[in-house]
Each structure stands twice: as structure tokens, then as C-alpha cells.
Design goal:
It contains three helices and eleven strands; from the N terminus they run αββββββαβαββββ. By secondary structure, the chain is an alpha/beta fold. It folds into two domains: 23-122, no CATH class; 129-186, Trypsin Inhibitor V, Chain A.
Length: 187
């Protein structure tokens, strides 16, 4: 079955490449931000009244950064059938409006704006500690690696493993029993 699906996906890919038909198009958003500490994420995209409503979130990372005007960018792919729709960009998480082409909005504004809109893209949910519970050691490590996150096994069947004592807030620490993750901590 997997082999069949693989050949189907390769065939579809070759067909779309050979015929010049693109199945998805990129949606890119760039805004001016007050410092390089700010990042931008496209959280969802909706279709409403022949418009593509692109919802982004600007977020400041922890720590210090120079107060220098910078650009924050985000990009996702959506089905190509939405290519002709007029794009409107809305940004939450900030109050400035340095550049044209987008509107800063609140959660209340978004609720009104998105009433009756069809969702065509939603950003994947970030991994949490619960994402790993019940997975095998290999599957848990692969899942963390797929999101470019650090992970390690700190306990196997109640026996602590030798690990470094450095603290990394983004790293997942797995406690394993009978080959499956039973507890996760970060650090």
C-alpha cells in the first residue's frame, strides 16, 4: 500500500511538473518591525467575498536586541486555485503600522472580520509535552527532530541515564518505560 501511494505521489508530482501546473502557490508576507527580535508567523488564511484574508501574528522573542528597523517575513503554501483572489493582510500582536499593505487588528476585530469566511490554511499546532506521551523512543525522537527540536532520553525503566547538566529550555527530556514515553520535561 505504501509503495502504491509513493508511486501515485511521484506520478502526480511528475505530471504537475511536466504540464506546468502548480498545485500550490506561496503566500509571502513581509512587514517592517522595530527590531530584529520580532518574528512573524502566518497563523491562518481564509477566503471571503473573493478576497484572501491572511492572518499573521507578530511576536517578540525574549532577550535583548538592537532597536533597529528590520523586516520580518513569513511564507506558507496554499492551493493554487486561490491565486487570483485579492490579498488582504491582517497582523495581531503589535500596535505599530510602519508599512502599507497590512492592517494591525485585535482579536475582537478578527472575530468580526472572519465571520462567514472559509478557512483554507491553519498553521500546525506546536509540539507540547503531551505530543510525545505513548510514542516509542524512536518515534518521539523523530517527531522532535522533524520540528528541529532537541530531545534526549533521561530515564529508561526507572533508571536515570547519564546526561549533561546544561539547561536548554527548548529541549524535550523523555522518561521511557517498556519502550514508550511515559513522562516529558523540558530543559
Amino acid at each position: 500500500m505504501r509503495l502504491f501511494l509513493f508511486y501515485c505521489s511521484v506520478g502526480l508530482s511528475l505530471f504537475s511538473s511536466a504540464s506546468g501546473i502548480s498545485l500550490s502557490i506561496p503566500v509571502e508576507v513581509t512587514i517592517d518591525v522595530p527590531s530584529p527580535a520580532w518574528s512573524l508567523k502566518i497563523t491562518s488564511i481564509h477566503a471571503k467575498a473573493n478576497k484572501l484574508l491572511i492572518i499573521c501574528n507578530a511576536q517578540k522573542k525574549d532577550g535583548l536586541a538592537a532597536a533597529v528597523m528590520s523586516k520580518a517575513k513569513a511564507s506558507v503554501n496554499i492551493p493554487s486555485r486561490f491565486n487570483k483572489l485579492t490579498r488582504k493582510v491582517y497582523v495581531t500582536g503589535q500596535k505599530w503600522n510602519y508599512s502599507k499593505g497590512y492592517k494591525a487588528v485585535t482579536a475582537e476585530d478578527l472575530e468580526k472580520l472572519l465571520a462567514g469566511a472559509a478557512k483554507i490554511y491553519s498553521s500546525p499546532k506546536p509540539l507540547t509535552k503531551k505530543s510525545f506521551i505513548g510514542l516509542t523512543t524512536t518515534a518521539a525522537r523523530a517527531l522532535a527532530a522533524s520540528k528541529d527540536l532537541l530531545s534526549r532520553v533521561v530515564e529508561i525503566d526507572g533508571i536515570p541515564q547519564i546526561v549533561t547538566e546544561d539547561f536548554r529550555p527548548e529541549r524535550f527530556n523523555f522518561a521511557i518505560r517498556d519502550g514508550k514515553v511515559i513522562r516529558v520535561s523540558k530543559g
